[in-house]
Amino acid sequence: MKRLVTGLSGWMPDMTLTRISLMVLWVFLLTVLSYFYFETTRGYLNRALMQSEANVRALALTQKELVEAKLSEVDRSLLFLRDLWFESPEDIITLQKIMLAKKEVNTELLDYLLINAEGDVDTWSRDEERPHLSDRAYFQHFQNSLDDVPYLSSPKHSRVKDSRLFIAVARPLRHQDTFSGVLMAALDIERLADDLGGISAGLGLTTALLKFDGEVIYRVPFGAIEPGTVIETLHQWQGAPPDDYSYRGMAPVDGRLRQIHYQHLKNWPLLVVVTSDLEPLMLDYQAFVKNERFKFSFFLASATLILALCGWLIERRRRLELDLKQQELHYLTHYSDALKRSNDELEQFAYIASHDLRQPLRMIVSFSRILSAHPSIAENQEAKEQMSYVLEAGQRMDEMLMALLEYSRIGHDGEPIIEQDSLALVQEALVYLHPDIVKSQASISLEGEWPRVYLPHNEGVRLFQNLISNAIKFRQPSQLPTIVLYAEEVENSYKFIVEDQGIGLEQNQLDRIFLVFQRLNPRSAYEGTGIGLSICKKIIERCGGSIHAESEGINQGCRLIFTLPKSDTRAL
């Protein structure tokens, strides 16, 4: 019952622990969901940005190869034409025919021009008046230097009737280190942009071809930036830009967030720049984040609802258990009190009955003795025999009343349960049994170590006295009694064994020997009231222990085994 009360008092801490556990679980779920939410959204954005970067870089590499191939092709044609001029400078007609032929297969090629040392056009593919070009940068460059590398001009408008925006690729003409003029190919910028940069239009990207100083040659979609415009970001670079460079940022052209990639042409002072507008990607990312936030909120709300429901169910169950335990406590208290009153009344009745009945019983026995000495009975053999039966029955009844009185006094004499040496109790019991031991020539041995136990002193002595006396009494007639006593430690208790070589017991008699006034043998063979082992059982159970018997059968001896707890069980 004390355990039940303790359980009820610990209910509130248990509920607090349950709530803390549910809160910890909720925080854990929140952490896990938040981790997956941020990892999912961040991973989605990173993958999208990496894919955009890979696409832009791949297109930039493609554009770089196309531009290099186109310019290299034009430069090779200039070298071929220059070689023809060196072989036969006077054969202008043949040179002009070759120029026209190459122009036909190159849609972005406006014209080839052979310009003399004074800046006048000697040969070209048109029939109109020939312009004077000594002021052009490509002409002045070779006029004032001795290098022989292809020159790429800035975007300019041609000086013809149907003027076109073009860039010039030029090579010098020299005869014996003397400047003889310039051989130039004019490329239509708009057609060049359509041919080289058109691949990006269908992908939603922009492509631009720029010089190192940031001057734009073309940008696709065409017309967004005028050719010749200088982009200050590139203009601010000191020295040559990096060969391969990617970054994300606000584009200097339109101020939009873009993925930007530069590719440096190997043999030309040019950069191919490809950009991808990231704002649609960011809008898609925001939609994805919104969807993931909805999922996160849904799962978090579901988890919170489930945990709240679990908490409510647990608390409801605990409350029901509390109500049930309170009812059990009420019923147990009620029935415990009733049982205690009943036991007290029963023991009081047994005490009164055994004590008060002895007085009239002694009178009956006394008068029976007086009557048995009367001549009328003493001289009548039959009456004398019947009177002896009365006296014997009275004496037996007195012995039973004394035994019942002794049984009812167990636990009611005010003797406390204290810790004491069990070996000392056995040795004191042997002192009281000394006459019986000598008379029966019994061999009694105490083996092993004997622990300290919780027992009332007098009842402890009576316990061992009854057990040893029982072993001496029920010995085999043909053998001297041999009795061994020892103790063992088992988990939370001590086990005591009283082993004899006596008459033994049948299996169906092992429990009956502990019942009050139960005799398994005739009184003529073994005297006694049959209450000795019942007293032992009551003493042991009062101290929180138990007792049982073991035997292999008749004339196989018997082992009486009882246990006592290591601690005083009255605190439980």
UniProtKB/TrEMBL annotation:
SUPFAM superfamilies: ATPase domain of HSP90 chaperone/DNA topoisomerase II/histidine kinase, Homodimeric domain of signal transducing histidine kinase. PROSITE patterns: HIS_KIN (PS50109). It catalyses: ATP + protein L-histidine = ADP + protein N-phospho-L-histidine. GO terms for molecular function: phosphorelay sensor kinase activity. InterPro entries: HATPase_C_sf, HATPase_dom, His_kinase_dom, HisK_dim/P_dom, HisK_dim/P_sf, Sensor_kinase/Photoreceptor, Sig_transdc_His_kin-like_C. It is an enzyme of class 2 (transferase). This is histidine kinase. It comes from Nitrincola nitratireducens.
